[in-house]
Amino acid sequence: MRFSVRLERVPAVVAMIVLTVTVLGPLYWITVSAFKDRQEILLSTPTWFPQTFTLTNFQQLFLSTDYVIYLRNSIIVAVATTVVTLIVSLAAAYSLYRLRVPGSGRIAGIVLVSYMIPGALLIVPLYKTLSGLELIDTFAGLVLVNVAFTAPFCTWLLRGFLLAVPTELDEAAAIDGAGPARTMLRVVMPLMVPGVATVGVYTFIFSWTEFVFASQFIVSDTLKTLPIGLSALVGQYTINWGLVMAGTVLTLAPTVILFILVGRFFVGGLIAGATK
Amino acid sequence: MKTLNGENHMRSRAIAAGVLALATVLALGACSAPSSDSRPNKQIVLWHMENTPSRVKVFQALADRYNATNPTHTVKIQVQDWGQIYTKIAAAAQSGKQPDILFAIPDFTTYVRGLGLGQPVTDVVNRVQATSGLVAASTAPYTDAGESWAVPLYGMVQMLWYRADLLRAAGVQPPKTWSELLAATKKLTSGNTSGIALPAGKNLATDQVLYSLMITGGAANFFTKDNKIAIDNSKTVAAFDLYAQLLAFSPKDSGNYSWPEPQAAFTSGAAAMAIEKGQYLAPFEAESGRPASDLGCAPIPVADNGGMPGSIYYSNGAMVLSKDKSTKDGAAKFLEWILDPKQYGDFLNAEPGLFLPITKNGGTESNWRQNPTISTYKTCVDAMLKQADTGTLFGFVDGQYVKSIGQISGQNFLAQAVQQMYVNGQTPTQAVTWIQKQMQDAISK
């Protein structure tokens, strides 16, 4: 009996192993390559572990590129986008799905449709709009565009969490004299922490990895974010693989740490948000 | 129901206040970030797409040096990306936010002019021609209707690179003709070593290598006098056939190759030959662990029948976009300053070996000649300069100026034709018929 149960688990275990190797294999390769010298990276017979363990790639990254500036800029843009998206999507979700203002169903549909428009198609009109607002080449402009693309999805994502909170709580809060804003902030929101964490992680990763808008709406070197800085390491005609690997490892690190800290909220949150 | 007690109340208020404060600080910080639009009147904004760290550093150092001479207009550099520049300059043009100087290559220049941007710089080019002399291949692709539309700054030319150690071991001489190239490729292929590494991805790298072979096969000009496509001919078929045969001896993943992969295969010894520009020189010793003498170079092999020496040649230049006369004059002064022998060598050293001088006295410029890469590989550098004399580029052959070339180069039709053979199994004749139609359709739209 026990043997047959174990046999039944074999396909699942094999699938998990294959999936893990597929997902983590490239990450492993990038990480070990970051610690190899230029010659070892290009060996025709690759080495599984660095034979020439070196930190030169990381030293060069900090000394010969503006990595620290890109990192600072990415943190500013990602945190600002996350905070603004949280505020906007929480308020929007509460008003659309909880307060049931007239026409909220249609508005909710329109909001979701706007999420489905490919961003690349909007580059020229967005450039003109931001230019008219004097927001080209500013963090504010980039954050504004990022929020425009994250807030609709996050608003929809929060719907599931809102529906899970009984409306009786709102009614009880109203009897205690709380208005809609206070009810949302002090009654409903504390019960939606997994949803807030999900939205926060999703938005942070979106803006941390966002490339298209950052490459179009930022022109000054001092305002460039990490994806743009990293792409510059893969230059036309030439490439320093060690530098690219070191940059990639350090760029991945914050999102990996974030996932380790709140990853279980994120996975659970996505499922909850999508199914309720 | 949870009670709204004082402690929770205070905590909620503190959290809300903290979030709002953080949002305010970040928003203020974001809004206070500098903007490219808030520039002084006497400043020239320059966009270049040479975004690798070493090039960025050298160009910025030169701009700083120029600004220290107290010019009428100072120069502010903003680094862009080749992959994004087509969309970005279009969007900037629509908003009137284009830079004053824009680095360019010939087909990109036709695109930018199509956006209504670009001023003639004929007077600047004439002055540089008079003082320093210009390589003909560098100015020709920017000349239209008697006017120059960009000031050439540096050139790039392709060569046949070979691993001298591998050729020596196999008893192979550097090939001079197509048949010798094919025979050498076959002989050098053994075990884990491919005879040659060629790109076959849908990208500009594949376009360029195939076009070099088309040039030496006499198929460089594929436009009629009235700018229609005339690529479907026996010479093109022969060049395509050679490329297809060579690909059989290139690494199996060549279908995804662009610029870096053939170089990595070549440097590591996984391939004995490659066709590319001078970027192979600088990193060779560090990445291969071999002495510099193991890096050999030769002109692109020519067709056995009716072949001619040649190679693809990219003249990289700078367009002046500003219409304001004072700014235009300031831009012209800066570009002439760059080409002055006192600093031109330093400019070329931004990517030694890849960036070749376009002025006739630039080839002897001491700062450039003394660069370790240039002096170590002097023979190959001189060979590239000689190859540049026969260099040309599609759409600009023999004084042509095909305004619709951007619609062809932008879609990588040559590379797509390679994929038709390499991936879809078409014969060279079928691929040439296919590309004739695709190109004609593209320029007819």
Automatic annotation (TrEMBL), chain A:
Cellular compartments per GO CC: plasma membrane
Transmembrane segment boundaries: 12-30, 75-97, 109-127, 139-158, 191-219, 239-267
Signal peptide: none
Subcellular location per the Swiss-Prot or TrEMBL entry: Cell membrane
Origin organism lineage: Bacteria, Bacillati, Actinomycetota, Actinomycetes, Micrococcales
Organism: Candidatus Lumbricidiphila eiseniae
Membrane protein topology class: Multi-pass membrane protein
Name of protein: ABC transporter permease
SUPFAM superfamilies: MetI-like
Domain ABC transmembrane type-1: 71-262
UniProtKB/TrEMBL annotation, chain B:
Organism: Candidatus Lumbricidiphila eiseniae
Domain of life: Bacteria
Signal peptide coordinates: 1-29
InterPro entries the UniProt entry points to: Bact_solute-bd_prot1, SBP
Alphabetic keyword roster: Signal
Pfam families (UniProt xref): SBP_bac_1
Name under which the protein is recorded: ABC transporter substrate-binding protein
SUPFAM superfamilies registered for this protein in UniProt: Periplasmic binding protein-like II
Source lineage: Bacteria, Bacillati, Actinomycetota, Actinomycetes, Micrococcales
